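for the writeup, i need someone to sanity check this before i put it in the appendix. the sequnce is what the collaborator sent (i think, or maybe the updated version? ugh). structure was predicted straight from it, no edits. if anything looks off just tell me and ill rerun, i have time this weekend
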Amino acid sequence: MMRVRGPLERLIRLTLPAETARRVHPYGRAGGGHRSAESRVRGAGRPLRCAAAALAAVLLAAGCDTARGPAAGGRGGQRGYAVGRQGQPPSTGKPSAHPRPGDLNGDGYDDLAAVVAGGSLVVVYGSADGLDPRRHTVVPRTVSTANPEQARLLRGDLDHDGYTDLVWAPKRRRPAVLWGGPHGVGDPRPLTGAPRSPAASGDFDGDGDADLFIPGGATGPEGTVWFGPVERGGAPARVQHLDNGRWPDSIPARFLAGDFDGDEATDLAVWFHWTDPDMEGDGDVTVQGMQYLRGGPGGLKLAERHEPPGLGLEGQPGDVDGDGADDLYGASFDAYRRQLGLGYRLSTRSGPESGKRQGLTVGPPPGLTDATQYGGMGGTVLGDVTGDGRTDLVTSATGANDSNGVVWLVPDLLAAKAEAVQAVNLDSPGVPGSDTPAAGRGPTRNRITVVGPLLDTDGDKHLDVVVGAPGFLNPKRPELDAFWVLRGTGEGMKYQRHFTTADLP
């Protein structure tokens, strides 16, 4: 999308009104959520983007090419990535001043993106009837590895064209971007110049553009911030190298991004682990310390340094109380006591963990059977499932029910009540599947888990829950290959659809 400058830019700024943010973010917050990809309106820059997107749409309709780089849906790929296979196309979307983080083609319906069995990436597009497996993109992995590959999927409008883009950030391969567009995502393009895969995305300088944080290695800067817009060739608008002084023999290893002070700039916490310089090979990953960096004009600045014990900032970021600042929330399952634990720590303008703390124990929670219970948590996400304007928590325990798993919905986490908790498992009425192994499959287990983030896949203003199971089709593959969609309603989660990777030819 071209950048509008000069007299036209001044005219746009004078004629378009600013928009206002909603109390609860309409698309929810998954763990690791950020304020730019889920951005709220930030001053005069937002009207400009809206007008620029509208103007570009007019120019495109008139036959003018304003795209910066390959168009979405173009063929290509890179070493280690295959050309995507397309199903039926989704409905044609349009650009937005602040695109929905879940909506990759701008049609008003959020889309699922997940790494599945074999390390392939799948995108299933939303519709008026929810996720439609017929409308999909599948990008197979072409590099063979012995173990399942860990990969992050980050979302944000990197190139400032009004469409949400998808960053595919594998642990052992070069990162790639699937650029969003009116017909869905295109084939993966290399994030040229990135020394390694990004670990977090956000708006670290608060200017309304999506930025990427790329962690450092054992030497050199602790990390690098790529500030948007990012050109389709891979070049950021500018970079910031973080060199605040690491602990001896340490490496940045864990990251948490969120707007913890409500100033509309994303903050970042970076944990440093010991690098085992003596090569003892004992697996020691002792935490050396943590840096808390505040976002703002100019980028990230060191605010606090923490050393063990008492590192703080434990949990996942999300706005529990709707005040515009990300809080920290979490859930746990005590298999021995058969108890579900919930908790949050509110943030204020003073920063993270500076407000109220609250916890709730539910025992035994609904959805448990007489089977043996084991520990092990799956995905935990935050958002408005019931559509009442209050923030709900959805969590999963993969070890529950003899490791078949269960999914819980906790309505209104801020005022959660044990009797309001709802549960779904594969033995729930009307949900296809079973916790009883099929003939010939042996002692396999479902281990169902929430696949974040929460998504409004049918555009009804209720966030839907996507549940996945690893090895459902092939017990020898420990990666996701089956999904269940639980539609958000005023009464909670309602089963809507089931599909597997076999339904995505």
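The longest strand covers residues 480-489. The first helix runs from residue 7 to 15.
thx in advance!!
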